[in-house]
Amino acid sequence: MEKHKEKELLKRIARLVKQNKELHEKVRLLAESNDRLTEQVEKYERRLAGMKERPADGEDAGDNTRVLKFKMATVLFADIQGFGKITEQMDTQSMMDNLDDLFFQFDSIVKNFNLQKIKTIGDSYMCAGGVPSKNSTNPIDVVMAALEMNRYLAEIKERSDKNRVWDIRIGVHTGPVTAIAGGKRKISWELKGDTVNISSRLSNSCDIDKINISANTYELVKEFFSCDYNGKIPVKYLGDLEMFYVKGIIPGISEGGLGLEPNKRFDTKFKLVQFVDLQEIILDKLEKELPGYLYYHNVKHTIDVVTEAELIGWAEGVSEEEVLLLKTAALFHDSGHTIGYDRHEELGCDLAREYLPDYGFSGGQIEKVCDLIMATQMPPEPKNLLEKIMCDSDLDYLGRSDFIPVSNTLYKELREQNKIGSLNDWNMLQVKFISGHQYFTETARNLREVNKQKQIERIRSLIDE
Questions:
Q1: 336, 344 Cβ separation under 8 angstroms
Q2: What are the phi and psi torsion angles at 187 (to 5°)?
Q3: Which homologous superfamily does the CATH classification assign to the domain defined by 66-262?
Q4: With 50 as the cut, is the pLDDT of residue 48 above it?
Q5: What is the mean pLDDT of the chain?
Q6: Beta-carbon count within 10 A of 291 CB
Q7: Is 60's pLDDT higher than 60?
Q8: Is the peptide bond before 380 cis (omega within 30 degrees of 0)?
Q9: pTM for this structure?
């Protein structure tokens, strides 16, 4: 009875994963369509603006201004306070030099977390994540930067006279922005939109030396940071906006309990979020560079293997880091086909070694990913649990209800390269291969083995003796 319940649960998980994948694909297609329409609208708006604002004779028309729209950026607005105390003790120039030193340190923090400084005036400081290069981790990056800014000011307070202390109130909000890039030699960025205004409102509603984030940002970072509810503020046209104070990194993923220093588990969770960006880049590369005759080893197959690697990995009880390695290997396992058909596993490893250092993977992690990629070579001979999961994910289609149409795409792919004879020859080869194949993990056996045996009978019925 327990075995039956377990099988039913696994089937439900598989169905939910499939439905989730289909919804993600629909959202992606709608987003692409929306992007194309937005680009067209912006193009016409720029043309219209150019017609309305023609430069006078002798005036420079090429100001290199660019207008970009981002669906998800995180804006940090810091309100610097302390002028009242400082001006009693120093002249205006010394005061400004002191503020410049503070902003210099903030610039260093912003750069360290791959954020973009935004043009500001006076004693405020603004930066943003996800601009000008979009990414999925920008809410986490910005909150980490905010914690680092607060820590730096706390260190100043410990070293300085109380009358020479800057105070800070930080507001953070995640949402869509319009970014305007100007300048010829050195590009400066300006942000427009409700997201900027809300982050400013959040800083105004914040206590001294606190980090006040919106509910939008909170939902995106709550697995990384411990937060306290901070009530609501009214926002025009948006109603009441919930706020949260960030206390620090959650115990268990930071050094020494609740703190500011992320540990290895934080890094793994961060990479699992960042995987979305890596996946988008590699899938885009596959769409553009895979040869047209790859009817089976295409983008869909890669997505299927990534999905199954995660599903089987969690079901088999592997760690978060191991799930990350499995998904990454699945993403790259057929990427070598962009270079060549034969030895594509080795070529995929070369690409993994090229891309993964930019995403913070250690040398040891990269080699483990490459070992998993190489485990998909035929015939499969996995040496450990992760390699077994990888092999089962790669050949998951053998036990799926759509096996025959998927199998036919592989036949078509091989036929165009003169690597196989007739369809009848292919079906006989398939029966031989599937009859000798075994799933290595208990999860895959529970999900696919029964259906795989049915596929053998279906193929046998198609063979002309």
A1: yes
A2: -75, 130
A3: Nucleotide cyclase, GGDEF domain (3.30.70.1230)
A4: no
A5: 86
A6: 14
A7: no
A8: no
A9: 0.82
